[in-house]
Sequence to fold (1294 residues):
Amino acid sequence: MTSLNIPTAGGFRPPAVPEVDVHGFWGERIDAVADKTVMILYDRCVAAGMLDQIDPDRLVPEIRMPFHTRADGSPDTVNVQMFWDSDVAKVIEAAAYALYRKPNPDLEAKTDAIIDMFEKLQQPDGYLNSWFIRMQPGKRWTNLRDCHELYCAGHLMEAAVAYFHATGKRKFLDVMCRYADHIDHMFGPRPGQRPGYCGHEEIELALVRLGRTTGEQRYLDLARFFVDERGKRPHYFDVEAKERGADPKQFRHRTYEYNQSHAPVREQTKVTGHAVRAMYLYAGMADIATEFTDDSLTDALKILWDDLTTKQMYVTGGIGPAASNEGFTDYFDLPNESAYAETCAAVGLIMWASRMLGRGPDRRYADIMEQALYNGALSGLATDGAKFFYDNPLESRGTHHRWIWHRCPCCPPNIARTVLSIGSYMYGVSTGELAVHLYGESTARLAVGAAPVTLTQRTDYPWDGRIAITVGLDVPVSFKLALRLPAWCRGAKLSIDGESIDVAVAEDKGYARIERLWRGGETILLDLPMDIRALHANPAVRADIGRVCLARGPIIYCAEEVDNGAGLNSVILPGDLSHAGAGSIEQLGKAVAIDVAAKRERWDDWRGKLYDAKKPILEDVTTRFVPYHLWDNREPGEMLVWVRTER
Amino acid sequence: MTSLNIPTAGGFRPPAVPEVDVHGFWGERIDAVADKTVMILYDRCVAAGMLDQIDPDRLVPEIRMPFHTRADGSPDTVNVQMFWDSDVAKVIEAAAYALYRKPNPDLEAKTDAIIDMFEKLQQPDGYLNSWFIRMQPGKRWTNLRDCHELYCAGHLMEAAVAYFHATGKRKFLDVMCRYADHIDHMFGPRPGQRPGYCGHEEIELALVRLGRTTGEQRYLDLARFFVDERGKRPHYFDVEAKERGADPKQFRHRTYEYNQSHAPVREQTKVTGHAVRAMYLYAGMADIATEFTDDSLTDALKILWDDLTTKQMYVTGGIGPAASNEGFTDYFDLPNESAYAETCAAVGLIMWASRMLGRGPDRRYADIMEQALYNGALSGLATDGAKFFYDNPLESRGTHHRWIWHRCPCCPPNIARTVLSIGSYMYGVSTGELAVHLYGESTARLAVGAAPVTLTQRTDYPWDGRIAITVGLDVPVSFKLALRLPAWCRGAKLSIDGESIDVAVAEDKGYARIERLWRGGETILLDLPMDIRALHANPAVRADIGRVCLARGPIIYCAEEVDNGAGLNSVILPGDLSHAGAGSIEQLGKAVAIDVAAKRERWDDWRGKLYDAKKPILEDVTTRFVPYHLWDNREPGEMLVWVRTER
Fold:
């Protein structure tokens, strides 16, 4: 068994989190999460009663969370308490990365205690789910469609892998391997096994992580089985419903598009349903495509990728506009004020994008990963690490604010674990190539074959586009180094030890791919000019017509009331932004603000009138824009991403 | 008993329909409705099975329309079939006006036959409701909140009044007086009477019409009782629900704001709930205010009027943005594409506005009456008189079309009777004054006191703002003539027999009020210049920001795909419209089109892209606008009222 993710076949794999020391922009965020968020998450899980449900030494508690209501008014069989194991698992995963970041004996002891509970809770056959062991015993594996059972298993596996990497302790990893063995025993193509899969995807990508960490091929095969089985006829969820005496049509989400099981995965061409589920499925599919070099999956994923990113994605990388299904609706239906755009869905998009890089560097994936990361995902976490957004609208009249906790507390640990594990998203490692997908002050201890390679980035990214990368080697090694050239950048410059490289010649799929014998000590200078861009949306997006959104580097900007006063829709940006300036923002660290000389309609003389032939008077103003992910970190008020523009 | 509405006290009353011969713009519409619509309505009522329910000589039919479903999935006690009497009544009312317009023995025979059915159906005590006599016997007066019982009675009364005016036949009027007497016996403040009122307002204004026609004061007093009782505590609908063994909270519309009984009417300050119900209530209140010179009602109505017209009304005069409650939501919530803006609600607004003129000429009411009439109401009727809109959005992607019939067929007969009775909205008659509220080619036979006065209008209004009014008298009479000076008009000119009148001096509340001894034969020339106006909306209306809507005279304009191609949101109007031209529209008679030199964004190069820094290219185009009420009368396609404007 290998301890880290060293690839043994084709394709690129992410480094394990401890392999990358992150500083700078992300380092500060990691410290905030490690110092504050993780313990907040732990405390809130305790306060919610989650450990009462898990710990077999405590009395079985009352059910705390109400069951959902069906359309006909009757109580459904599902509530959010069913997937508490997954919330606790994400907290353990975040705790693991935090412990790697800095020792914290108190947090480690608390995490070990939870792991002990799970170990004690585990049944002799390996089964492990606190809801179905303690709250609804006897019902295990009877409703994969609704009950999040394999989803919870997946998050526990991810947590176990992370905790092992961070602490070297095997206990939780062994517990989860026993559970994975049980699942492998229950589900599969052989006689007596069930051809099932989960209504809430996650187990697929988790089994790949577990397989990569343990070297156990069965886990990869089982993940592939879940992916391949999904959506086949007769439909497993129909069969399963009849077996438990239920009408398959009694499904609160009506169509299996909700959980992406309406068709076999290779036949799906439209991104549908619950956004987080879709992203986790596609992430798992991409992992399987990498592990099994399965082009049939890659081809399907490319179609889905285009479908999502050219018809259904907010400019923030937020996805899933509708609250009703926490997911997708019609093409180009991207309302700003009512945008659901759950933090978890942006995290899921980052996960999918990073796994699409498993088949090789390609900026169509890495650019979107970066876009979702710096905007629609990071917005979910306040700078102090103590407050959260669940939904991430692109416009607010001033009533949308960060909250302390949520009855469905999936987002806080999800953005926390993503921030803490950002190092693993920055690089890709194959047998002969190292890819730099994301830039940021950091040191990565990677390897090409058996040869260790240290890549050190010095940069103020994302506030500045100049990056210095030094290559550290014990002995000279020949390998390819791939450096992403973001599509948002015009005029990228590249040099190695002062010798300039023609970017146009070196570029392949948006990466400068430099193959040579590296001797160690080389310094690569990459300059990515960060011009201020005014982005227009496809006019099929009704909400954004006549509006632009400002961007600089990977950062999407917004205007806030705290800087500009109320009535942000009175601001009209000039068509020419060449005079826009960049400044710094008090209260928000090194963040770069954009100041634009704009026009503004006077709106103060409308009292008592609804329609009027008088043209609104224009005034000259300077309008300040701040990074979208930082909004609602100062005084509350209006916020606007898509601002009117001169025509 | 007087046969027409001659005022005997203060206040202004509308003339009866036969007193005004209408030609020109409205004359053509009246002919289309009389020639075609009325018989279509009759046929569709027959096809729906309505007469099977009414005719006591036929077998009691099966229930044809499904009951509503409650939020909890159980069937409600209400369906749309319950108020079929009201649909038939509106058809009789429309037929009455049509018979006045031109003899039609077939239609008259059919109408007489329905009246005979109602006469036969009437119970010995005067009660008359086909649903509760034949479909649900024994349940009468047990659920005023939901079952439209007094609402149906009101429409039957209106029909009876109209049929009497049109034909001179008394049978139906007598039937309805007997029913009104029964209702007056059942409801009232005396011991043994019920302090009830209808959940669907209408009876109030109907009783006033019946009282004015018959001279019976009891009907006016009963109308006043219904108005005064509404919203008092203990709440009648609560008491009534308990009496029939139901939980008062089991109400599918949750709050009594839905039917405007949440507070006594004089304490209501916000226009809420179901839009048609609200309008009918306020219309009835205004009638009572006029009949009883009740300033406490007038004061309440003024507050509600401002609330509606400065915060909750579309520029078309459409009201009630939401389909969910067929009514009002939040202030300034006026989405264009999803606008419900039911035809009946605009008709209701016209009815309310016309009755606000009962306390004297005031253009704040007459202007809005005209705005709703020419736009949000008239749009509900196709030019051929055979197709209808139920909801009247202000933007369509090309999928919203006129329909032949509707399961809730309230709008077609409502707009039909409004068009046919337009003459009665044009004038107001008091003891010493005649008011001209609406302009249009017509001859009105009115009276001041006992002296007959004929007012003849010669004009191409609404396409041209020049109006010639001649005063016809038998003998010289001294009276005041009030001529509306619409607020949309700048530079109105007025002369009598060539002698110019200073409009500014003569104006009072937006009317030129000319008091003199009229000798007969005078010709008044009124010139209302119709400049093309670009209207802006209050910026609190989020949907209209950065957009304008074109208007000329009382007509609101829209762009249609048939004239301009698809992608109407790519059109950007210039800030200066002085070069806009007016033209005529093939296929749409004398209607005036507006042609504007505009810019248009090229939208053809967006394929496969969602966001892009490239600014859309602008092209020069001429964009054609047509009257909103005429849209979807030619080839189907997109439609847009609020068009982007240059900034």
Summary: Residues 588 and 630 of chain B are 8 Å apart (CA to CA). The mean pLDDT of chain B is 94. The domain at 432-527 of chain B is CATH 2.60.40 (Immunoglobulin-like). Chain B touches chain A through 47 residues (CB under 8 Å).
